[in-house]
Amino acid sequence: MLAGEPKSELHQRNKRKEITEDEDYLENEAEIAEAKPPQKDSPAKIWSYTPFRQAAFLAHLFFAPKFFVHRVTGLIYLLQYAAAFALYFYDYDMFRASPLVWSLPLTGVIQSITAIYTFTFLPKKTKDPGYFSDKYTMNYPFIVENSFFALILLWQWVYYDDFFYEMFKETVVFEWAFVFFPYVMRQAWPQTRFRDSLESTNGKTQKNRFFYQIAIMVTKAFYIWAKHYIGYFLNYARYLNRISPEQTKHIYLMEISSAFATTIAVFLHTLKFRKMIGPRLSFFIYAFAYLSTFYSYYFIFDVFPKNLDLTLLCLGGVAINFASRKWHVLYQVMVFSIIVSSRYNIAPEALKGFLPLPVGNQ
């Protein structure tokens, strides 16, 4: 600190230094990427190794001392995911009775938390989240934000389990928070924006720039759909106990796909950064994971006309998705009032024709 320099000026100078360091980090990384561009979407050199060398590489990938907790947690998640995927198709009833319905998504949350405490060195001030990039790594706000999506995914996994459903019904306020106001709670997390990824050109090589622009727009469109019709809609339908056991079966397959798109997708970025897979292949795998959720909806598409009231309420949410936060909160309060009054059969007479009574014992 210079003699006589006010603390506020010192703080500002340190802030400017921190931003400059982050920018230098990305610029250096971009220079390396330009000098040695990512490989094409073909198996990297590691895949041509002998089985022994491949085993040694995997051992290092998951058990190296650096980032050990994060690596091992990731391995535990991958093993559980493989078990859940296989068990779902082999014996669905066994899958539902297994601890995987809560341990897999819970491990996803834990993995996201270990990432928060592991990758503190990542850029913190850059606007581009870095996921849709073949030059940059992900920035730190993106890592932190991912824990929110892992958390709401955990909620939906356990909310569709009968044991946890009955338990959460007794909590009332806790249930209300996750069913109706998850994106109000999201204000506690940093928020990255697709727009920043779309506007950023420095993070993309010339040959992949147009590809990533299309990828971002497709992913953004899906995100809006998923927010309202995989998130809100399925929460509302479960809250009113309108989902049949057969529909629940297909919804759990949707949750398995969502688990890949939320947690394993971040691992794909690591593989891309290590040049084990190309940037386009990385995105195609990610896109296949989240688009595969439509496979589940194909079998339960009648859930929309049978719950036309909820379908229209979610459509209203889509309509105000890009409005100010104030309007979003007000709309959710309105939806909350309508649906809660329907569950407890206290809706005004004018609404009872619009919102049929929920199916099942409440």
TrEMBL record:
Keywords: Membrane, Transmembrane, Transmembrane helix
Composition bias type Basic and acidic residues, residue spans: 1-12
Region (Disordered): 1-22
The species this protein was found in: Boothiomyces macroporosus
Descriptive protein name: Uncharacterized protein
The organism's place on the tree of life at top rank: Eukaryota
Transmembrane regions: 68-90, 102-122, 142-160, 210-230, 250-271, 283-301
